[in-house]
Request: fold
Amino acid sequence: MSEWPKQIISEVADGIFAVIHGQGEMGVSNATFIVEQGRACVVDTMTFPEMAAQMAQAIERQGAHVDTVLNTHHHVDHMGGNAVFTGARILAHPRSIDAGQKLGFPVSVYEHLMPRFKEHFADLKLVTPEPLPDPMPLPQEGKILTFMPAHTAADLAVWFPKSRVLLTGDVGFKGVVPLALNGLVSGWIEALNTLIALKPEVVVPGHGSLGTLEDLLVLRNYFKTIHNLGYEAVQAKLTLRDALAQFDPGPLGEWLESERHAINLERAMKEARGEISRTDLSAPVLSKPL
Reply:
């Protein structure tokens, strides 16, 4: 492709820079870097090195060098740019590493899901992170929060209590319908409850524009609606199609990737039937969107 999605880099608090990427559509995720005393920590590296390279240049302009990279989960759109930072320590939750290794690198699947980037996947070389140590010190007194499961089998968020900035990874979406295909709706609700209790002032979602506490509340209400309808549909022995006809997405009705509502509702119905549970989510699954 001749033009990569636009990146807007803004300093959302002293030394914390959000990289807001495109509209947050499939394959176009956000990232963040945190600068302190000439060192930088990068949280997520987007899908391709060409995307991460713009962030690396911005870090250089701050007079900093990257010593740590944190991948919030195993999806390629959050770790595909790791190769730009091979001089740094690249880290992820052990369960995310395991999920990524089991998934492998299904080029044909990615080309189907993200056709606008089709010509780039064949040459993409993934850099596998190493397990996240415990404890893991972060700049700006950042704290890592772990959720198992939510969007995936293991998701990380990063909280900066002094500046009240929250990096949600893909536990948070804004303007783009979230996707529970690899996760558990009930677990996602629990994760959002935890993030909401922090009362952040600035929220950097995994996809979409900068947000606030209110955006987390909107997302939690959406998933609560999905979760409740899923259980009601199973009890009433409704098909997915019939259940979907009863679904009101509320504010998310105007968001991108609307086909994901059906995927999320199907996921909630599977959970209600007992077909998926927390113990089932050690291996990721990829399928075509409905």
Observations:
- The first strand starts at residue 7 and ends at 13.
- The radius of gyration is 18 Å.
